[in-house]
């Protein structure tokens, strides 16, 4: 029975194979056209691969830029937690305890020349308004000078004096007045 099936298959297949063998092969033009088609497909595949690679590289570069921006923003947020320098009564000299704080700001500003700050100078309520504006200016300039001596560009820094106009703590206690004698590094 199985032999019958094999014979039937052979009988059906024999004319098909014979017809295929008798047919003529492709012409030279057909072969050249086929080679051109294959070459075009390969060229298109290579072009798509190059485009995909370029897109991947561009996406990675964009991710690196975005991550760097995030890092800068994280650093700036951390610096904003420590941005106040306090001064002694009637003085504009930076105390040694605030030099480390200012060094951190200077390092950040040197590494990020596109960042700008305004140094705000403040005083307590003692003294005339004119005197306090001048003292606030000297305090802001003291912070500015410190940062510039640490390598920060002068184009990144501006100063403003508010004198006694913007107290951090209301009142006339020694604590309140000490909190108001300050310079603040404000990022723009």
Number of helices: 5
What is the number of strand segments? Answer: 4
Output the structural class. Answer: alpha+beta
Strand order in the sheet with the most strands: 1-4-2-3
Pfam families: OmpA
Subunit structure: The Tol-Pal system is composed of five core proteins: the inner membrane proteins TolA, TolQ and TolR, the periplasmic protein TolB and the outer membrane protein Pal. They form a network linking the inner and outer membranes and the peptidoglycan layer.
Family: Belongs to the Pal lipoprotein family.
Subcellular location: Cell outer membrane
Comma- or semicolon-separated keywords:
about 190 residues, alpha+beta, 60s Ribosomal Protein L30, Chain: A, 5 helices, about 60% helix, rod-shaped
Structure description:
By secondary structure, the protein is of the alpha+beta class. It folds into two domains: 51 residues; 103 residues, OmpA-like domain (60s Ribosomal Protein L30, Chain: A, 2-Layer Sandwich), CATH 3.30.1330.60. It contains five helices and four strands. A four-stranded mixed sheet has the order 1-4-2-3. Helix 3 packs across helix 4. The chain is rod-shaped and about 120 Å long. It starts with a helix and ends with a strand.
Condensed summary:
Belongs to the Pal lipoprotein family. Helix content is 61%, strand content 12%. The longest helix has 53 residues.
Secondary structure layout:
Layout: H1 2-22, H2 28-80, E1 84-86, H3 99-111, E2 117-122, H4 129-149, E3 157-163, H5 174-180, E4 182-187
Parallel strand pairs: 2-3
Antiparallel strand pairs: 1-4, 2-4
């Amino acid at each position: 029975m199985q032999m019958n099936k094999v014979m039937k298959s052979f009988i059906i297949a024999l004319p098909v194979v014979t017809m295929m063998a008798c047919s003529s092969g492709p012409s030279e033009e057909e072969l050249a056209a086929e080679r051109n088609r294959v070459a075009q497909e390969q060229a298109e595949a290579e072009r798509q691969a190059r485009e995909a690679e370029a897109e991947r590289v561009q996406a990675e570069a964009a991710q690196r830029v975005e991550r760097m921006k995030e890092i800068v923003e994280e650093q700036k947020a951390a610096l904003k937690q420590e941005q106040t320098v306090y001064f002694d009564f009637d003085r504009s000299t930076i105390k040694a305890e605030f030099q480390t704080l200012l060094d951190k700001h200077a390092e950040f500003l040197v590494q990020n020349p596109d960042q700008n700050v305004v140094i705000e100078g403040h005083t307590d309520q003692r003294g005339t308004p004119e005197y306090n504006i001048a003292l606030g200016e000297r305090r802001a300039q003291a912070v500015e000078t410190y940062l510039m001596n640490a390598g920060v560009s002068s184009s990144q820094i501006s100063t403003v004096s508010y004198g006694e106009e913007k107290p951090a703590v209301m009142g006339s206690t020694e604590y309140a007045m000490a909190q108001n004698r300050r310079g603040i590094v404000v990022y723009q």
